[in-house]
């Protein structure tokens, strides 16, 4: 069983973040509903939880509700990651009910130097949090910030923190100071979370660069094909949530069953090698991904 399968329903995002590896590249587009249902049929025996992104923002998909209905049909949970830029387009009630297990807002997109968000972004975000508290929703809300913004004393981050403090009636600065000191010392706790309210968390994540390293490292541990699997919006199957370009294209779900793809010699070799702490693919050897960041 995979802990998560990443199904990229669309690689489209209206943000042009400086840290995005592919802001101006041609897009594959949105996976159609028929293909999405087939993908769900293929992966549903292998996992209980899916994400709806690799690149792209799922909330950019206007008819998202139709995709969610299909997920519910297969009794799967959703961990959604979004910038929140298009939050206003969608029903809060839909997002705060099953099959949604967790929604993570990437505040780094809002804080990025290339950011072009509406003035009511923060108020929409807080309204969503209020809706969760009013409904007593079981959906977790993660407000995620990368460590780079904390370490550089980002002014906009401080404004955001001030807004959170006022809204949730909580003092965050002393705790953030301690976390910042840890990050500065190179101490990276796997999950650094501060509870803001019931099922609402501020989540400080170690910053991650998508670009590959110039150096190769063969000795590597990875969750690819063990705990996770990726499926791009064009139905290409990849080992993990990082391979947005399908550099390790294991197969195409439009022409082969998932069982055939996962039992291919290439997939088996990758999985067996990682179990021994060895990366055999050149892409994996150059990957700068830190295990535990998602």
TrEMBL record:
It holds the Pfam family SPASM. GO terms for molecular function: 4 iron, 4 sulfur cluster binding. The keyword Mitochondrion does not apply. Its cofactor is [4Fe-4S] cluster. The keyword Heme does not apply. Keywords: 4Fe-4S, Iron, Iron-sulfur, Metal-binding. InterPro entries: 4Fe4S-binding_SPASM_dom, Aldolase_TIM, rSAM_sf. Residues 222-287 form the 4Fe4S-binding SPASM domain. This is Radical SAM family protein.
């Amino acid at each position: 069983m995979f802990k998560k399968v990443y199904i990229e329903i669309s690689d489209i995002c209206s943000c042009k973040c400086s840290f995005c590896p592919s802001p101006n590249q041609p897009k594959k587009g949105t996976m159609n509903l028929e293909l999405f249902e087939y993908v769900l049929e293929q992966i549903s025996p292998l996992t209980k939880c899916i994400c709806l992104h690799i690149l792209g923002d799922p909330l950019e998909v206007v008819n998202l509700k139709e995709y969610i209905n299909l997920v519910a049909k297969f009794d799967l949970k959703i961990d959604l990651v979004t910038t929140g830029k298009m939050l206003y387009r969608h029903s809060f009630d839909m997002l705060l009910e099953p099959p949604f297990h967790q929604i993570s807002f990437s505040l780094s997109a809002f804080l990025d130097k290339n950011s072009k968000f509406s003035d009511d972004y923060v108020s929409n975000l807080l309204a969503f949090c209020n809706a969760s508290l009013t409904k007593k929703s079981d959906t977790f809300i993660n407000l995620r910030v990368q460590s780079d913004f904390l370490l550089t004393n980002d002014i906009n981050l401080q404004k955001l923190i001030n807004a959170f403090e006022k809204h949730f009636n909580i003092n965050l600065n002393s705790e953030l100071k301690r976390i910042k000191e840890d990050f500065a010392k190179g101490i990276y706790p796997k999950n650094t979370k501060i509870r803001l309210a019931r099922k609402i968390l501020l989540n400080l994540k170690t910053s991650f660069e998508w670009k590959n390293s110039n150096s190769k490292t063969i000795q590597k541990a990875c969750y690819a094909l063990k705990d996770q699997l990726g499926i791009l919006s064009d139905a290409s199957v990849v080992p993990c949530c990082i391979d947005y370009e399908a550099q390790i294209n294991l197969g195409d779900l439009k022409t082969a069953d998932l069982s055939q793809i996962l039992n291919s010699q290439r997939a088996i070799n990758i999985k067996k090698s990682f179990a021994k702490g060895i990366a055999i693919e050149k892409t994996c050897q150059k990957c700068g991904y830190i295990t535990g960041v998602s």
